[in-house]
Amino acid sequence: MTILKLEPSSEPFTYEQWEELAKTKLTKGAFDYVQSGSGAEETLIKNREVFSQWDLLPYVLTNVEERDLSTNLLNRKIAAPFLLAPVGFQTVVHPDGERASASSASKLNIPYITSTVSSVALEEVSKIMQDTPHYFQLYWPNDDDVATSLVKRAESVGYDAIVVTVDTPLLGWREKDLHNGYFPMETGAGMANFVSDPVFQAKYNSDDLLEDSELIPVIRNILLKQNLTWEKLAWLREQTSLPILLKGILRADDAAKAVQFGIDAIIVSNHGGRQLDGVRSSLSALPAIVEEVNGEIPVLVDGGIRRGSDIIKAIALGADAVLLGRPYVYGLANGEAGVTDVLKNLLSDLDTSLAIVGIPTIQMIDQSIIEEKR
Asked: Cα–Cα distances in Å, from 143 out to 129, 139, 215, 228?
């Protein structure tokens, strides 16, 4: 009998270790920006705690020798049922920022969602992603001409979908950021998609006299649209042929509206606990939304995903895939290698968990393997 001998590792391995490493590498402002939630962080905490309210019920004596983590999403095959969530301002974490995250995702065939407030222009991210699925996340600017330009730029260079964030008419009350006096754009991060946009430049810097730093208040002023309504989605549909996803759904009736308005998929999300504190956890909102949608469009979920068993629980409750945020951003503190380590660990954890739960493929996960604690 061969006994596997594991050597102690000096490298970060768990989510908690990556978080601690990031804390040592980042400025206090940057770390708190990534780590914190809004208000008293009640929702941030609930996003994690809710996973412990569900037990997995593994099958035994099933053949799991050949396992398959892949799944299909929006008519594309992906390596595993998770995507890298849109996270802006990544150069405050590492100088390579979104370049490193996208490069790691591309090499592992993990979909990547580029943020409106990326520190790297959407065209460059698309070039890095190549044929790996990648979506563009839209914070709908308070200028429809700029919004149209961003969407058309994304479509023209090969993005696979548009993800409209719908839970952010304003930024949440983030007490740590307020205490620190920290907004990452003040460092020069998160401006790339605006300063590279011809419509934005023509309207707000037509003489090309303003330095990028002088455009920060302009971008902040138009970044978020407070009068965005459902009816505006019909207008967006006219601007692009790409699939449209809505990110930030927590109500079943809003999910039903999304179907009625022809949305192609929804993401159940509370913005990682960073918008309205006191809302329910994403996972607790998921079952009712899945029931309401009834398979008409894919349902994704984010918030609190840390390990392979979390992914299995979310899929068992009806999600088609999940989004990963803070874990890969903490890995980014070590550059592309750190992101890759985080993703490879999660893939291995998911593969191991799938085998032990007694199911060989992601598609076979269903409600029979999960039970709410009594």
From this structure: 28, 11, 15, 11
Q: Where are the alpha helices (DSSP H) in 158-307?
A: 175-180, 192-195, 198-204, 216-222, 231-239, 252-260, 282-293
Structure tokens at 264: 């192609």
Residue whose token pair is 């609190």: 304
Span 15-52+76-342: which CATH code? 3.20.20.70
Q: 204 is written with which tokens?
A: 């707000």
Q: What gap in Å lies between CA 188 and CA 8, rounded to an integer?
A: 40
Catalytic residue among 94, 134, 179, 271: 271
Angle of helix 97-107 relative to helix 335-356, nearest 10 degrees, comes to: 40
Q: Which residues are annotated as a binding site?
A: 33, 86-88, 115, 137, 139, 165, 174, 247, 269, 271, 274, 302-306, 325-326
What are the tokens at 44? 């941030």
- Position 194 scores a pLDDT of 97
Contacts of 339-342 spanning 24+ positions with Cβ under 8 A: 339/100, 339/101, 339/104, 339/105, 340/104, 340/107, 340/108, 341/11, 341/12, 342/18
Reading the block at residue 308, the tokens are 């392979």
Kindly give, in sequence order, each residue whose CB lies less than 8 Å from that of residue 222, ignoring residues fewer than 6 positions away.
141, 142, 143, 146, 204
> Cβ(119)–Cβ(190) under 8 Å?
yes
Query: Do residues 83 and 134 lie in contact, with contact meaning Cβ atoms separated by under 8 Å?
Result: no
Backbone angles phi, psi at 295, to 5 degrees: 80, 5
- Whether the CB-CB separation of 189 and 97 falls below 8 Å is answered with yes
> Kindly report the CA angle at 94 between 134 and 307, in degrees rounded to 5?
60
Q: Are strands 370-372 and 54-56 parallel, antiparallel or unpaired?
A: antiparallel
Confidence of residue 5 (pLDDT cuts 50, 70, 90): low
Share of the chain above pLDDT 70, in %: 97
**Domain boundaries of the chain, sorted by first residue:** 15-52+76-342
Instruction: Clarify whether 271 is annotated catalytic.
Output: yes
Residue 2: predicted pLDDT = 46
Is the model's pLDDT at 189 over the cut of 50? yes
Q: With contact defined as beta carbons under 8 Å apart, do 315 and 365 qualify?
A: yes
